[in-house]
Task: structure prediction
Amino acid sequence: MGRLVVVSNRIADPRKAAAGGLAVALGEALRSTGGLWFGWSGNIKAEGTPGEGELHVRQAGTVTLATVDLCQEDHDGFYLGYSNGVLWPVFHYRLDLANFDTGLVNAYRRVNQMFARKLMSLLKPDDVIWIHDYQLIPLGAELRAMGCSNRIGFFLHIPLPPAQIMSALPQHAWLVRSLFAYDLVGFQSEADVSHFAAYLQQEVPVETPAPGLYKAFGRTLRAGAFPIGIDVNEFQDLANAREGLDMAQRMREEYARRRLLLGIDRLDYSKGLPHRVRAFRQLLANYPENRNSATLIQVASPSRETVDAYADIRQELEHLCGAINGDYGELDWMPVRYIHRTVARHRLPGLYRAAHVGLVTPLRDGMNLVAKEYVVAQDPEDPGVLVLSRFAGAAEQLKEALMVNPYDEHGTAEVIQQALQMPLAERIDRHQNLIKQISVYDVHWWQHRFLEALSETKSTLV
Result:
């Protein structure tokens, strides 16, 4: 394989441990080829020309990091507007929250065209290009329009909605057609692949010459599921480091008389946080033995707080938590501990390990790596129980978790009670099966498998 070029909305220095598992995995592939990582710098220039941004290039060991600034108008239209105000809600099945202002798609196209121009100046003939996520769906088509003949793959980290929801997007035909500029498109789950295939059958004159191959618009595209994982060894090292062990010990001492239920999420309407808290209230109402015993710790990291939908969900969540504490709390017991800030990554494993039940109950999620982190952090001799939404991409892999429909708050409460009452032998058996799955299909497998599939995919550039 030639030099690897990774393109994502934001980049990270792969040499830094704080960059996280994805950056470590991509950095591994980039270093092996002397690669290039390209994306937005994170800088917003108050003054600037739309569609123009300064290019910055620097070295991080053997990896070249290239970033582009955005002016305020491009940031607001491309990032806040179309990416997060249209694609994010639609792809998470929330058409009611999407802003279909036609000016936003113009900013989205303009920034992708600018990224293509800046990237073209850095490319070599044998580069292999891997583009990531919903902010950059049309980037491959823009590169092709500028004469790029390199092999290009694309991976969608968020879910793809069913055809009927996708076709409600005013620009859906253009967006899906732009995917055919790629040689390989990867999704998180088989469900996403099925949605893609169903959309093509419904909306596009498409041929399927072989499983996973789709021929339309003069191109043959390969599409498949490549479920992303975590860096298991890195996370186990964090769990066994002093900070992780100290955190677990402090939590056990603090809550020695309690059984902890834990949720770690961004504050986002896709995560089902109000539904989860209402299910916990249902648990306390239906099973009084959990009063003065079970404590829910809900960490909701700040997210896009200037957007009305996020401000609304924060207000709703705070009201729900306050109401439960007021109705059920005692002088020495608060049912819900709600934390609206980010917990440092090195403290997460200890927090996970101290929790008897991990609650990962999104209304829709591409994968949800918190589920995998929770399992990896557990004590194998006395593991906690993972309660997982059937609408998370992780549900296809983590079948030994206790599955719930997060919209069914009564049913979720029943499953949480089952988790709290689960015998040790069953907990150990479920955990062993889960950890085996997570360890095999980790983030390194994901990276190797996608790039291997891209190298095997025959280019049909015309």
